[in-house]
Design brief:
By secondary structure, this protein is mainly α. It is about 70% helix and about 0% strand. It starts with a helix and ends with a helix.
Amino acid sequence: MDIEKISAVDRNIADKNTELNFGQDSFGQSTNKSNMATIGGTLLIVAGVLSLITWVSILTVDISLIDTSFIAQEGYAITPEQIQSVLITCGSIGCILSIFPILGGIVALKRKMRGLALVGGLIGLFIIGPLFASSILSLIGLIFVGLSKEEFQLDFVEFFEGITGMFQIFYCNMGIY
C-alpha cells in the first residue's frame, strides 16, 4: 500500500516536472545558458561592492579633516557637526541601497528570481558610487539581465510546487503520509 502511494506521488511529480521544467536540469537550472545573465550578475555585484566601499569610506570620514572656513566666509551658519550628520545619514542610506545590487547579482548568477535581479539593478542606478561608475555598471548589468529572460526558469509558483513535492516524497518514505 505504501509503495503504491510513493509511486503515485513520484509519477505526479515527474509529470509536473516534464510539463513545467522543459529545458531545465534536475536542479531547476536552465540548460540553454548563455553568458548574458552571468555578465549582468557580475556587473551588479561589482557595482554594489564599489558603492558599498564608497559609502563606508564616507561614513568613516574624520570631520576635523574638512575645511569649513569657506562656508563661514559666505555667511552661512553651518557647523562641522551638521556636515557630519549629513554625511552619516547619506552614508547609511547609501550602504543600505548598495546591498540590493549585490543580492540582485547573486540571484542573477544563480538564474533564479529574475524579478529580484531586475529590482537590484534598478536600485543600483541610484547608488552613485565612485564617479557614477556604480550607476553605469548597474545600468549595463540591468540590460544584460533584462535580455536574458529565457535563462531564468524558476518561477515563484514552481519553486513552491517543488518544495511541496519534496515534502510529499519525504513523508511517503517515512510512512507518515
